[in-house]
Amino acid sequence: MHFLAVLGRARFPGMTTTLITGANRGLGLETARLVEVGHTVYLGARDARRGEEAAGRVGAHPLLIDVTGDASVQAAAKLVRDQVGHLDVLVNNAGIIGPVRPAGQITAADMLTVYDTNVFGVVRVMHAFLPLLQAGPAPVVVNVSSGLGSLAVTADPESHASVVPVWVPGLAYNSGKAALNMVTAQYARAYPAVRINAVDPGHTATDFNGHTGAQSVEEGAEIIVRMAVLGPDGPTGGFFAAGGPVPW
Ligand SMILES: NC(=O)c1ccc[n+]([C@@H]2O[C@H](COP(=O)([O-])OP(=O)(O)OC[C@H]3O[C@@H](n4cnc5c(N)ncnc54)[C@H](OP(=O)(O)O)[C@@H]3O)[C@@H](O)[C@H]2O)c1
Prior knowledge:
This protein has a single domain (3-245), classed as Rossmann fold (3-Layer(aba) Sandwich). Helix content is 42%, strand content 14%.
């Protein structure tokens, strides 16, 4: 389904407040097109100038938020609380690939750097924004993971082609996304009133991979948007790609 087709499913056009982290470029910026169906989008960026430029391009509100900084995340939550009082949709999208080297050359410091953004960053943002999500009528969280974080796929090389066509090894990135998947599942169990899912956008042409991805950002963002506009009866605690559930 084309990206724009799912936009029509937005639940409360004109009334939905959405925060997307790492949204000044790539998949996050494309997801910010939720403004086109009436979402009030806070476009999260860790650099004020980049955030303002990107927000201006799509009609979103720039929000300074570096997911590796407690003070930055708390200040962002305070701003949304003061301006809106609640948050309807949170898209935890900010992510880094980290060092791409053979496993034996990855250090604990490398792992900490990648986890600080891709795993602990999500926990920082959830900790700060869960009270705001719970203050809304039908809260939704989308954690942007990767099929590379699937233990099932990693353990079964024959499934690589069908689930993750471009499977690459990666001690820090892949294990961090596996951790994010469990973080997602744990939050979903702890907060049954919130729709909390992980998604795999698929190999998408962005700066992240030097634009080698096979998909456009429109195609990659489709599953992010689809899970961001879930109604209160939608699934929670799942892991989804455009083609359906991804094995954990
Ligand atoms: N592209 C793919 O093929 C693919 C596949 C599967 C999953 N994903 C996931 O999709 C998400 C988005 O990836 P992308 O391809 O759009 O990557 P991208 O083009 O490199 O964009 C990453 C975004 O994250 C931001 N970011 C990085 N560290 C941050 C921090 N500490 N605080 C706040 N923002 C931060 C970046 O901000 P700056 O501009 O300031 O650096 C940028 O806006 C990531 O979680 C990635 O793991 C991507």
